[in-house]
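Quick one, tokens below:
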């Protein structure tokens, strides 16, 4: 396998080059790599603010400052992994169903080569076709889900497929195992007083934001690791998991969430999990300020890639 990594030379400052993630080389689905950055510029499932179709490129631009090494883990990611930016999935802006099928069709052969997708959304609807593509190779997955919403509605405004329903559909289709899945950060006002219990009724472990803060990060990491066990897993990170002070550029912000620092600390504790895929979704540039949200998303993606490198090093 050709070793793919960002350029590193005195003549290549961070502002130089085309706008791939972390200035990684552009690859095609035929190229082999350990991880694959994939943009999913889709927002046909958004129910409040829209414009998440512009999220992937905003995250790529913010990622220019993402370098090769993770000092927390004391690791140069690219000494252990090869990775590239595979561009964006096809999208049909007036056709939700056709777009969902096209996303899965684009990602599935990349996963089949052995690459772990690190997908940049796009609204949270995109997790459904991404899970379909990953499960086609790896089978039923544990879900590790950071979000202020459970996204387990059966319908949203009469639609079975939207950013409020991806994990209900994934459960219906047998893509995820709820007994090994966990949702963290659920909060915000709801239509009914018991709505926060809905994912629990489906078999998920759901840790609401106030419970998360009471537990503390070390115990929360223990809960996640215990829940997933040895199962292959998929991590989905909605930027509205963060408090709007740290991620204003998102579609359905909910106050009372964690900081970016706390989110990174949580992610860094998950290196023992065998992840088969990641997504970072719901970046909405038109409501962002000074790239606050895009920078957070770019660094969340880097922490996800770092987990793969740490696990590879340990093996």
């Amino acid at each position: 396998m050709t070793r793919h990594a960002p350029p590193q030379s005195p003549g290549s400052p961070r502002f130089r080059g085309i706008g791939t993630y972390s200035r990684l080389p552009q690859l095609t689905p035929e190229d082999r790599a350990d991880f694959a950055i994939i943009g999913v510029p889709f927002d046909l499932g958004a129910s409040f603010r829209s414009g998440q179709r512009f999220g992937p490129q905003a995250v790529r631009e913010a990622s220019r400052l993402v370098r090769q090494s993770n000092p927390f883990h004391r690791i140069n990611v690219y000494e252990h992994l090869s990775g590239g930016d595979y561009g964006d999935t096809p999208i049909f802006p007036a056709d939700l169903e056709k777009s969902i099928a096209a996303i899965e069709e684009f990602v599935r052969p990349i996963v089949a080569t052995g690459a772990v997708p690190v997908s940049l959304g796009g609204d949270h609807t995109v997790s459904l076709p991404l899970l379909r593509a990953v499960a086609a190779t790896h089978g039923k997955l544990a879900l590790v889900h950071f979000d202020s919403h459970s996204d387990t509605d059966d319908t949203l405004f009469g639609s079975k497929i939207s950013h409020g329903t991806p994990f209900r559909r994934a459960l219906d289709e047998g893509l995820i195992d709820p007994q090994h899945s966990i949702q963290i950060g659920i909060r915000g006002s709801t239509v009914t007083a018991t709505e926060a219990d809905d994912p629990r009724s489906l078999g998920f472990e759901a840790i609401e934001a106030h419970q998360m803060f009471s537990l503390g990060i070390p115990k929360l990491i223990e809960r996640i690791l215990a829940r997933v066990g040895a199962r292959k897993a998929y991590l989905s990170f909605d930027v509205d998991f963060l408090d709007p002070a740290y991620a204003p550029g998102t579609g359905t912000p909910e106050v009372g969430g964690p900081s970016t620092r706390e989110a990174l600390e949580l992610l860094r504790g998950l290196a023992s999990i065998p992840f088969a895929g990641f997504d970072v979704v719901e970046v909405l540039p038109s409501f962002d300020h000074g790239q606050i949200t895009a920078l957070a998303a770019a660094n969340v993606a880097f922490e996800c890639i770092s987990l793969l490198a740490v696990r590879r090093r340990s093996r």
